[in-house]
Write a structure and sequence with these properties.
The protein is an alpha+beta fold. Helix content is 58%, strand content 16%. It has 2 domains: 123 residues, Alpha-Beta Plaits (2-Layer Sandwich), CATH 3.30.70.1730; 41 residues.
């Protein structure tokens, strides 16, 4: 090997193969390192998804293909403000994470470009997702789950029509300052209705 005009010239075939071999070794080590890192990251993602599926009050799966970055940020912001969150799903990993959970029947929903919306209470994720879908036709709700119960699109829309826990709390607080006649009306309401409202408020602390 010799240097000529600022360039290194290979003068023998042996030197050429030696350099090529060293480059291949470096490349193989780099690929192996990336695979190790990716495997660790995937493991963490699956563990996080598994925990989310098991601990969330409800999970909504939707297609988001065609949404702009601005629209995705808007959805993320609205979900966060309401007390929920969204996460773009990697379908193969999502299916692995669902194995052994109460929401295992959701596996078939994970095709195409999917995301999950989830919340601690059973209503928020559905309510925000349905409202967002009304204004953005590229956002398509596929289904979801609430614990062991699979949710169809219609079931999610029904959940979305219910008052959120924050709305229930506001109603309870509002009743404290209402005239006695209003309180009497509430007392005379069906027992189940009052129990649901008070129970929801109590669970929310």
């Amino acid at each position: 090997m010799r240097e000529e005009g600022g360039r290194i010239l290979i003068v023998s075939i042996e030197e050429f193969h030696a350099i090529k071999g060293n480059q291949q070794i470096c490349f193989n080590r780099s690929v192996k390192w990336r695979k190790t890192v990716n495997k660790a990251e995937k493991g963490k993602f699956v563990a996080w998804l598994n925990k989310t599926f098991q601990e969330s009050g409800s999970v909504v799966v939707a297609h988001y293909s065609g949404l702009t970055v601005s629209q995705m940020n808007d959805l993320r912001s609205k979900m966060s403000e309401a007390g929920g969150a969204i996460k773009v799903a990697k379908n193969r990993l999502a299916k692995i994470a669902l194995q052994g959970t109460k929401s295992e029947e959701m596996m078939d929903l994970f095709t195409g470009q999917t995301l999950i919306a989830y919340s601690e209470d059973p209503i928020t994720a559905s309510k925000v997702a349905v409202d967002f879908a009304k204004a953005n036709d590229k956002f398509v709700i596929l289904g979801g789950a609430m614990g062991e119960t699979s949710l169809s699109v219609d079931a999610i829309k029904s959940l979305a029509s219910l008052p959120s826990l924050n709305e229930l709390r506001a109603k309870i607080l509002g009743m404290v300052s209402t005239p006695a006649t209003r309180i009497v009306q509430v007392i005379n309401a069906p027992t189940g209705q009052v129990a649901r409202v008070v129970g929801a408020y109590a669970r929310g602390g």
